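Checked the freezer inventory, then went back to the computational side. Two predictions to log before the end of the day. The first one is the construct we discussed on Monday; recording sequence and tokens without edits.
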Amino acid sequence: MKARATARRFAFGAVVLGLLVYLVFPFLWAVVSSFKTNAELFATPTRFWPERPTLEHYQKVLANDDFLHAAVNSVLVACSVTLVSLAIGALAAFALGRYRFRGRSAVLYVILSMTLFPQIAVLGALFQLVNVLGLYNRLPALTLTYLVFTLPFTIWVLTGFLEAVPVEIEEAAIMDGATPLDLFAKIMLPLAAPGMVTTGLLSFIAAWNELLFALSFMQTPDKRTVTHAILSFSATTSSAFEVPWGQMMAASVLVTTPLVALALVFQRRIISGLTAGAVKG
């Protein structure tokens, strides 16, 4: 029995290690490549570690005004999407999680079904909406369209989280004279902090990494986001050998590192937020 248990633990550890390498290796390769010279990037045979590490690619990226402006645009869009998602999602989740009314389950499943559609399937309709509202090539267009995939997730997670709050807390607040608004603002929101951190961070990451809508709704360089800016590094080249891969890798590392840091800092709240609705009571 001991040998069998040891074998199972070894097999499980091997699977986890394999998944970890599979998930981490692309980012690690980008980090290593960002320190290679252009000659080393195309050297044959390929070497993993750079012989002469250089900061040249980072210096060129940080000296690129278009990229820096795109980073500011991404911060503005991602923060606005996160705030709007949390504001609307928290109110909707409070109603769906704490009140019972006819059609509640249907509303929840409709919200969940919105996450099943690929972005390309709704692109045409969103393009028409953006044109009608006069938002084409304006950053609010991205805030509006990104809510299509951040808001349903926010509502679904926060609903499960608020459902897990013991009803006795709500009843005690009502007995003390709390109004529904007081109940929401002073009791439910503080208790939903892990869920708010989880959904807010994941909404920020989703908006920060999005590319399809940014390509479709933004036309001029001053309205680009960071993903669009990184893609534009190769827009004027005619062959793969002319693409500034070093700068693209450096830019990717600069864009990804803050997200990794945020995920590490808030990892406990993210886990508790995602698992909050698993057990009620």
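The second is the one RB wanted added to the comparison set:
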Amino acid sequence: MSVPVVFSTGSLHPFGLERVFGWAAEAGFDGIEVMMDDRWDTHQPAYLIDLVQRYELPILALHPPIYQGAWRLGPEETLVRSARLARRISCPLVVAHPPPPGPPLRRWTAGPLAAARGEGVTVAVENMPANRPGFFGVRRGSCHLPEHLADVGDVTLDTSHVGASGIDLLAARETLAGRLRHVHLSDSNLVAGKDEHRLPGKGLLPLKSFLAALAADGYQGAVCLELKPWPLGTPDPEVILKRMRAALEYTRDGLRRTATEAS
């Protein structure tokens, strides 16, 4: 079975959810990851199910809001409710952003993360980008190293976050392979602390070798294109569709290659 390649609605967040579903269907993606925010369209079950049926694109992942909660709830309660929503709409996976390593991560893992997983869906914790030093010193650390995620169970690997953290992408994949359930794919110019989410093939990450290694390992999750709107050609719909198709073909080509061909 081939690895599904899906599109994150967060890649085109200035547009409405329905337009993004339409473009993803027209470009030929296998599914959608919904980036939730404070708009009801991004977390109303009946509307999401209607979009799935009209565009014949399954929602294969939900991503709770990055900087705040939804439903006027805090981030921790939102994570649990997002897992409940995923179950209601038959979405198999929720992406979770962890707090900093150490006691905050341990408390979160035993509390909100365990509660969200108790809803019966996969909740895959994402590696974060390393923080740049602040003006007055080092900022609070983030879970950017593979070893930070050693005790959290299922994992989402974000390639742009790897690039921003100065980590070897192929080594990170190998370390996390047994727990890897979801991938956010984008490129990076490997600038420390800069989370770029460039179009695949437009940066310095070895993405073709990474994709070939995923396929060779029998990876069972999805690969999700999580990009920024401006490299996709926003706001021009023709350019957006052209670049979505090119990114999709790049990803599928990488998944079809052997490790030797990709190197």
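For RB: Confidence is low (pLDDT under 50) at residues 134-139. The two ends are 23 Å apart (CA to CA). Let me know if you want it refolded.
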